[in-house]
């Protein structure tokens, strides 16, 4: 049987982030992707012009439909939009005992908000303790902690450990918003073990959907029974390849998407 991963996230009509990016990444890594849509966004490479949250009962019905039929190996959770949707997702996955990758999506690449301010506490209190791994960028980690964004590797490690004390089994602190020629991602576990992943910082504006792609790629690895460290390493390498060929796609007039199928065809 093919490994199966489930993405619970919002839809991006531009195809570069959200559910669309998740399913592309899972497929590219040899995993069958199922989906639960939490919100529909009118979105392209330049802006998010409208957001429509899916009713909570429909979100739950989608989760139940998938989990009662498909043998899901891992779940990725992305855009949740409102406290009501967060609670619905938490209830819907309560009986799932596999790994959960939680990407605390708050702001689109265009700068538009994707999570209501009043939903931050609900996300932190209800879903963060359920996460096998939390994958925040530096502003998202700071928002969850009520702190300033980390500006050094030491602060990244410190904030990652603080998020672990809130219940997450592990935290991947993403350094895409950092400075310097090298981008550092740091995996901090609740046992204190640290793994570092680094790559040259690429000068490109085509990074729409990188967070979605990375988190869904980790879920794909976990669905294939990789260890968390190996799943993150595979996802990190895959994303770097997708970013390296992003400019060749020439999609849209703003922040274009990464090339999810760079291993299959060249842009």
Question: Could you characterize what this model shows?
Answer:
- This protein has helices at 18-28, 56-67, 83-92, 120-127, 138-145, 153-165, 210-223, 228-244, and strands at residues 4-12, 32-43, 48-53, 74-77, 100-102, 133-134, 170-173, 182-189, 194-200.
- With 267 residues, the protein is an alpha/beta fold.
- The chain has one domain (4-248): Ribokinase (UDP-N-acetylmuramoyl-L-alanine:D-glutamate ligase, 3-Layer(aba) Sandwich).
- β1 (4-12), α1 (18-28) and β2 (32-43) form a beta-alpha-beta unit.
- α2 packs parallel to α3, α5 (138-145) packs across α6 (153-165) and α7 (210-223) packs across α8.
- The longest helix has 17 residues, at 228-244.
CATH H-level superfamily title: Ribokinase
- Poorly predicted regions are none
Mean pLDDT: 93
The rounded Rg comes to 17 Å
CATH architecture: 3-Layer(aba) Sandwich
Structural class: alpha/beta
Straight-line N-to-C gap: 32 Å
User: What characteristic shape results from the CA principal axes?
Assistant: globular
Number of helices: 8
The CATH C-level class name: Alpha Beta
- Give the spatial strand order of the biggest sheet: 3-2-1-4-5-6
Question: Main β-sheet, in a few words?
Answer: 6 strands, mixed
Whole-number count of domains: 1
**Which topology does CATH recognise?**
UDP-N-acetylmuramoyl-L-alanine:D-glutamate ligase
**What fraction of the residues are assigned to beta strands by DSSP?**
15-25%
| Count of extended strands | 9
Fraction in helix: 25-40%
Order of helices and strands: EHEEHEHEHEHHEEEHH
């Amino acid at each position: 049987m093919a490994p199966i991963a489930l993405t619970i996230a919002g839809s991006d009509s531009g195809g570069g982030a959200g559910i669309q990016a998740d399913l592309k990444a899972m497929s590219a890594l040899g995993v069958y992707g199922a989906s639960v849509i939490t919100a529909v966004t009118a979105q392209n490479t330049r802006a998010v012009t409208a957001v429509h949250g899916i009713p909570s009962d429909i979100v739950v019905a989608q989760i139940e439909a998938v989990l009662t039929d498909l043998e899901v190996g891992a779940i990725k959770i992305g855009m949740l939009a409102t406290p009501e949707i967060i609670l619905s997702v938490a209830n819907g996955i309560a009986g799932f005992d596999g790994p959960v990758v939680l990407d605390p999506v708050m702001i689109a690449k265009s700068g538009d908000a994707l999570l209501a301010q009043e939903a931050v506490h609900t996300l932190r209190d209800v879903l963060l303790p359920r996460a096998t791994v939390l994958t925040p960028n530096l502003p998202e980690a700071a928002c969850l902690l009520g702190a300033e964004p980390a500006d050094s590797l030491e602060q990244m490690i410190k904030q990652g450990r603080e998020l672990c004390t809130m219940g997450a089994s592990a935290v991947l602190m993403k350094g895409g918003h950092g400075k310097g020629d090298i981008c550092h991602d740091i995996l901090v576990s609740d046992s204190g073990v640290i793994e570092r992943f680094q790559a040259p910082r690429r000068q490109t504006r085509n990074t729409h959907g990188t967070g979605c792609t990375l988190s869904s790629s980790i879920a794909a690895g976990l669905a294939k029974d990789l260890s968390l460290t190996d799943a993150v390493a595979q996802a990190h390498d895959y994303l770097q390849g997708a970013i390296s060929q992003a400019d060749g796609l020439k999609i849209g007039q703003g922040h274009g998407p990464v090339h999810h199928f760079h291993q299959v065809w060249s842009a």
